[in-house]
Each structure stands twice: as C-alpha cells, then as structure tokens.
Write a structure and sequence with these properties.
single chain; 322 residues; alpha/beta; Rossmann fold; 7-stranded mixed β-sheet; two-stranded antiparallel ribbon; 11 strands; 38% helix; globular; SRR1-like domain-containing protein; SRR1-like
Length: 322
C-alpha cells in the first residue's frame, strides 16, 4: 500500500509539473512570442551549412540548447500529455530543433520512365475539374500584391510509380505549373518572372533531375521557409511538420494553397482514450500540420476559396489570397 501511495504521489507531482510547463508555453504563445522567428531559422541554416557537430537552438526562454533527432514542434505537441510517454512533456521542447534521419536517395525507376509518367499524369490533371476550378479561383480571387515566387512543401517523391501516393505527387507537381501559369497570365509576367521552389526530404536523385526539367528548384530544410516573403505563394499538402504555424511566424505570404484551416481547434489538445472489447487504444488529438489560434488570425486577413478535388489528389485544400 505504501508503494502504491508513493507512486500516486509521484504521478500527481509529475502531472502538476506538466500543467505548470503547459501554462508557461501557452503564456508565451498567447503573448505573441514567435515560436519560429526568421532569425532563428537563419541561424539554424547557417549552423547546418557549416557542418557543425552540435546544433544550438534557443528555447522559449532564450537559453541555447543542444539538439538532435527531433522535428519542429507544433503548439499542440508542446501542450498535450502523451499517455505513452507522460514524462516527455517535462523535457525541453523548443518549437524548432533538428532531425537526423537515414535517407537513401537512390532512385527506383529510370528518369525516362518517371518523366513519361509525369507527362501522362499532367495531361490528366490539365483536363480535370480540379484544375479548371483552381485556375478560375486563381484568376478571380482578390490579390492586392504581386507574386514573384512559389514555395512548395511536402509534394512527395515522383519516383514511386504505379501507386496512389505517386499519382498524388505527380498531380501536385503538375498543379505547381498550373499555379505559375495562372499567376503569370494574371500579372502579365514573362515566363521567367515567377520562380518555383520545393522542399521535401523524400526527393531522390531522379526527383531532383525531374524537378530541374519542369523548372522547380529543390531547397533543403529550413531554406524553403527562409525563401518565403510578401511576394510568395506557399503550396503545401499534408506535411509532416507544422508548416502553417511556421509560416504564420516567419512571414505572411501573398497567398497560400494548403489544408483548410478550421474555424475552431484548441491549442491545448488531449489524447482520446477508446476502449473496445476490453482493449485500450489512444488517439492522437492533432495532425502533423495542425492549425492554431495564430494561424486562424492570419488567414482571417485573406480571401479564400475551397479547391474542389473529387479525385482526392490533394485532400481538403483551400486557396488563400490577399
């Protein structure tokens, strides 16, 4: 009994400490403190370029910390207690850290075959209802500032033929061309006046060559975020990092085409416990690119239109322009 009582006391103490830390994170966020300031990403990019053995990133209190094997953290992940690892919330969790992964970028298919498939899928895209709808929205939705570049996140590798994921990736890259052409036409730009960039760790050697052929420049993380300015069109599809929250802090762009921002979603999320046939499962309360109160305030300054995607090439996507 004494052991059980002692364990409960420790758990209550940990829970109290966790709640205190959550309040600290929320206070910083609601006060307007930027979790993803441009100068922080610039400094991180500089350290990566220098090949530093240790990467130092300031925490919410401005104290430099050494980090590895972590990914950018959304506000939800910093305020939700994981039932599998309840102690994790008590550890240092800066919004930005660095991740090292083993990535084999050797291609699976010859460039010729992947390019041929892209051309075929692009023809399907260009005759689709979704393409027609997107072109109409790009031509008519309010736009008060010029767009000079398109920065894309998480469009996926095109070097995985005959799969649903590959089809989606080909369609999404074809859509980049559609966006660029529509913006050039609307703004009376020359063909070289809108640059296209893409950031995705899944790209392999064949992807890089195909990107070059279709006029898209690949950027390493975090340089895609640093490329964003007031004249940028951001295109993001179901990324594994909180792109929307990062963009809201780094720079409000001229336009975004990304997963629809919900009108209401708590910054503090709780794991949901489910019991079926006596077995307990836990459901994560947020996606890898969740919204936040700051993201909702940002998109409130944009005109918006839903992208009609009956083929589910993009998922639930909305165009935001200002």
């Amino acid at each position: 009994m004494a052991s059980s009582t002692s364990t409960m006391a420790v758990e209550e103490e940990q829970f109290g400490s966790a709640e205190q830390k959550i309040r600290h994170v929320l206070k910083a966020y609601t006060s307007g403190k930027l979790f993803f300031p441009r100068h922080l990403l610039e400094d991180l990019s500089r350290q990566i370029d220098q090949g530093s053995d240790e990467v130092h990133i300031a925490d919410l209190d401005g104290v430099p910390q050494k980090h590895s094997l972590k990914v950018p953290s959304c506000i939800q992940s910093m305020t939700a207690i994981n039932p599998f690892m309840p102690d994790e919330i008590l550890q240092d969790q800066p919004p930005v850290a660095i991740c090292y992964t083993r990535q084999d970028r050797r291609h699976e298919n010859p460039l010729e075959e992947v390019h041929k498939e892209f051309v075929r899928q692009r023809e399907v895209w260009q005759t689709s209802e979704a393409c027609e709808s997107l072109q109409k929205q790009l031509a008519t939705l309010a736009l008060t500032r010029p767009i000079k570049k398109i920065v894309c996140f998480a469009l996926g590798t095109m070097d995985r033929l005959n799969t649903r994921c590959a089809t989606r990736s080909h369609m999404q890259h074809a859509a980049v061309e559609t966006v660029a052409e529509a913006l050039k036409k609307r703004q009376n730009h020359r063909s070289d006046e809108i640059q296209c960039f893409a950031q995705d760790p899944a790209y392999d050697d064949v992807d890089l060559e195909l990107l070059r052929i279709i006029g898209i420049t690949r950027l390493e993380d975090p340089k895609g975020f640093l490329e964003i300015d007031e004249a940028t069109f951001v295109f993001s599809v179901s990324p594994n990092v909180p792109v929307k929250q990062i963009v809201a802090d780094v720079q409000w762009p001229a336009a975004m085409l990304w997963n629809t921002v919900r009108p209401c979603e708590p910054d503090v999320a709780k794991w949901q416990k489910r019991v079926k046939n006596g077995e307990i499962t836990w459901v994560c309360p947020y996606t890898t690119d969740p919204d936040s109160s700051r993201v909702r305030r940002m998109v409130g300054h944009y005109e918006q239109a839903t992208v009609f995607d009956t083929e589910d090439w993009f998922g639930d996507l909305t165009l935001y322009m200002r």
